[in-house]
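C-alpha cells
===========
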Amino acid sequence: MSQDWESGVWEVDLAWGRRGARDAAARGDVMVVVDVLSFSTAVATAVAHGGAVYPCGKQDDVTAIAQSVGAAVAVHRRNAVAGQFSLSPLSFCSMQPGQRVVLPSPNGSVCSHYGRHIPALFAGALVNAAATASAAMIECAKHRQRLTIICAGERWEDDFEQEGMRVAIEDYLGAGSIISQIAAPKSPEAILCELAFSASRETLSELLHGCCSGRELTERGFRGDVDHAQQLDCYPVAAVLSNGCFVPWAA
C-alpha cells in the first residue's frame, strides 16, 4: 500500500511514554498502552481470567480507590506472598472471575491515566496482540478516530539531566506485534516498529530475556514473568478501560 508520509495522514501511529500518551489523548485518539514487563501483560492475564483491574499512578490514593470499588490492592512484587496480586503477571493466573484489583504502576498505569476520557483505551501486550489489534481497529472505525500505540517505556532510577524515561525494547516489540496485525495506513514510526517485530519474531524469547528489563527481572528472581510475557497471542481477549477499570472488550 502506497503511503504519503509527508502528508502526516495515517490511521495507525506509534508514540512513547507519558508525553506520547498525553498528546494522543488530547487528540482523542483510540489508544493501546503497551508495557510488556509488566503492567499490560498483568492486565491482559487478569482480564483473561475474568478479573477487573483498576490502574492508578503514584499520586493516587490506592487504598481509597480499593475501598470505593471493593477491590484488593496489588503489593510490590518482591513483597507479595502466595495469593497476593502484584505487578507480576503470574500472580493473576489464579484470579477468579469477578475479582477486582487496584494495580499501581509508574509506566503503563500512569500512561493509562491520560486516556481516561478518550473513545477507547486498551492494555496490549504480546500475550493478547491479535485480540487487541482487532478490537482497537473496530473502535477506531466506530468513533472515526485514528489509533496510537503507546510504548510505555521504563524509568531511570537516577535523574540524569531530567531524563526520566528509558526506552524499553520489549514494549517496542509488543507494539510491533499489534501493529503487524493491522491492515491500515501507518506512520513511519509504526512501520519501523512492525518491521522490527517481524524481523525478531523467531528470537522473541532471547530478546526479552536478554534486554535490560528482562535481565533485571531475572536477577530479582522473576524469570517466570518474562517467560509468561513472551507468549504470543496466548489470550484471545482484549482488555479495555471501562468505568475506570480494565475489563474484557466486547463488540
User: Anything to note?
Assistant: The chain has a mean pLDDT of 93. The longest strand covers residues 154-160.
